[in-house]
Amino acid sequence: MASIPTPTRRPVDTGRVEHLTRELLVALGEDPDREGLADTPRRVAAWWTDFLDRDHGTLGTTFTHSTTHDDFVLLRGIEVWSLCEHHLLPFRLTVSIAYVPQAQVLGLSKLVRQLRVHAHALQLQERITADVAGDLAKAAGTDDVAVYAEGEHLCMSMRGVETGSVRTVTSCRLGRTASDPELAARIERLALASAR
Ligand SMILES: Nc1nc2c(ncn2[C@@H]2O[C@H](COP(=O)(O)OP(=O)(O)OP(=O)(O)O)[C@@H](O)[C@H]2O)c(=O)[nH]1
Ligand SMILES: [Zn+2]
């Protein structure tokens, strides 16, 4: 499958978002000065800025892999929120991340931080899945990486086709997590278990 290019973007212009949110309220037929809405543009600008420009902390702590342990490490049940780039509505993901360490192991929390870097953006579920796998492969120096994500998209549950029960599952499997059927099956069984 062709990869989906990762877009770049500038930091949020908070003042402009505040101004435009006021305009949006007017366009929606509201009185932006009424009690209850007067502070809404400021709040909306603050949450966009916090969500998109958040500092996700230190990403790259690795440890030298000194044991004979040669099996995978798998984190499952990681919950993150992202935003659908088509409708600007949230989607919630439950994610599993697995890799087979080579010379180095990564600090476990760093896998979650890297996932949040990609989730806190205007996104596609497929792109998050692929980008997290690619970053992990680079950071850990191994191709044996698998990422599974199960998403509920509000653009499909609260509007549009209004199918609240639908979950979208995506995966990106690299190296032996795709080519070794026994390893692939063991990882997939665990990776999808938290989503059931
Ligand atoms: N592949 C993919 N599609 C997504 C994702 N999030 C939302 N979409 C889809 O983006 C599509 C946009 O379709 P359009 O026809 O342009 O927009 P729309 O008329 O609002 O579509 P409906 O949702 O069918 O009402 C929809 O089919 C959404 O379900 C995602 O993460 N990945
Ligand atoms: Zn959408």
UniProtKB/TrEMBL annotation:
EC id: 3.5.4.16
GO MF, any single term: GTP binding
Keyword set includes Glycoprotein: no
UniProtKB keywords: GTP-binding, Hydrolase, Metal-binding, Nucleotide-binding, One-carbon metabolism, Zinc
Pfam families for the chain: GTP_cyclohydroI
Keyword Cytoplasm belongs to the record: no
Stretches assigned to the GTP cyclohydrolase I domain: 18-187
Top EC category: hydrolase
CC per GO annotation: cytoplasm
BP GO terms, sorted: one-carbon metabolic process; tetrahydrobiopterin biosynthetic process; tetrahydrofolate biosynthetic process
Amino acids binding Zn(2+): C84, H87, C155
Catalytic activity: GTP + H2O = 7,8-dihydroneopterin 3'-triphosphate + formate + H(+)
Pathway as given in its UniProt record: Cofactor biosynthesis; 7,8-dihydroneopterin triphosphate biosynthesis; 7,8-dihydroneopterin triphosphate from GTP: step 1/1
NCBIfam families given in the database record: PRK09347.1-3
Quaternary structure, from the entry: Homopolymer.
Protein family: Belongs to the GTP cyclohydrolase I family.
Protein name per the record: GTP cyclohydrolase 1
Native source species: Kitasatospora acidiphila
Phylogenetic lineage: Bacteria, Bacillati, Actinomycetota, Actinomycetes, Kitasatosporales
Gene (UniProt): folE
